[in-house]
Every structure is written in structure tokens, then in C-alpha cells.
């Protein structure tokens, strides 16, 4: 009788671990010791920008950056330690995480925009990641 009870206990433990692994593998939400396993999935880049971007003032260029995680991360661009914002008729920060450099006339060249280093940052309550630096030259 004692051996049977021990066998049942061991079997239930193994089934519990297998159930947990199955739920994790299928993306099921699991709570373990008060912490949701689904929470805390820090950001991961889906599309990380290249290390260099060279473009002509007549063509412009697009730097993509996207990430996922739980909770969904906020994607933003940094340059010189500051968050990048739109510069009318020169640079656009898109809601999807892309950074666009618009075509511009030669007199509109701005070194702080067109000859700068940028990084993409994805941040959420579960963590923050930073892309490799992107050296931009127009």
C-alpha cells in the first residue's frame, strides 16, 4: 500500500511537470508561485537595423526596427542618448518603429541628422533591449 501511494505521488509530479511544459510550449498562460510565466517575456527584436546606412539626398532611406514581447514593447530611436523625434521635411519616426530619412535638397543637410549614430530601443515592464549602433551617412 505504501509503495502504491509513493508511485501515485511520483506519477502526479511527473504529470504536473509535463503539463507545465506543454502549456509553455503552446503559449498557455501559467501562474507559478504567484508569477505568470507568460508575463515577463522581455522584448526580442523581430527586425534589427543594420550597422550602417548610406543614402543619397535624392532618395532618402528607411531604417526598420520591430520587436515583440509580453507586455508589448515600445520601440523608439535614440541618437546621442536622446529620444529621436520628427524633423519636418527631414526625418519621420513611424509608429511601427521605422525611422525614415526623407529626400532633401543639399542646403537642408544637417550633420546631427544625416551624419549621426542611431540605436533602436525596445522597452517594456519586462525589460529593455538596445540594437547595435547604426552609423547613418547621407
From TrEMBL:
It comes from the Eukaryota. Transmembrane segments: none annotated. InterPro entries: Ig-like_dom, Ig-like_dom_sf, Ig-like_fold. PROSITE patterns: IG_LIKE (PS50835). Residues 43-131 form the Ig-like domain. This is Ig-like domain-containing protein. The lineage of its organism: Eukaryota, Metazoa, Ecdysozoa, Arthropoda, Crustacea.
Amino acid at each position: 500500500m505504501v509503495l502504491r501511494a509513493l508511485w501515485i505521488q511520483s506519477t502526479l509530479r511527473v504529470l504536473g511537470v509535463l503539463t507545465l511544459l506543454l502549456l509553455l510550449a503552446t503559449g498557455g498562460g501559467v501562474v507559478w508561485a504567484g508569477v505568470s510565466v507568460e508575463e515577463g517575456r522581455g522584448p526580442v527584436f523581430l527586425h534589427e537595423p543594420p550597422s550602417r546606412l548610406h543614402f543619397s539626398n535624392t532618395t532618402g532611406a528607411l531604417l526598420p526596427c520591430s520587436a515583440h514581447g509580453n507586455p508589448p514593447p515600445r520601440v523608439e530611436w535614440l541618437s546621442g542618448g536622446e529620444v529621436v523625434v520628427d524633423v519636418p521635411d527631414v526625418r519621420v519616426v513611424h509608429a511601427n518603429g521605422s525611422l525614415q530619412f526623407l529626400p532633401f535638397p543639399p542646403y537642408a543637410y544637417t550633420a546631427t541628422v544625416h551624419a549621426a549614430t542611431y540605436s533602436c530601443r525596445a522597452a517594456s515592464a519586462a525589460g529593455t533591449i538596445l540594437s547595435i549602433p547604426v552609423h547613418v551617412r547621407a
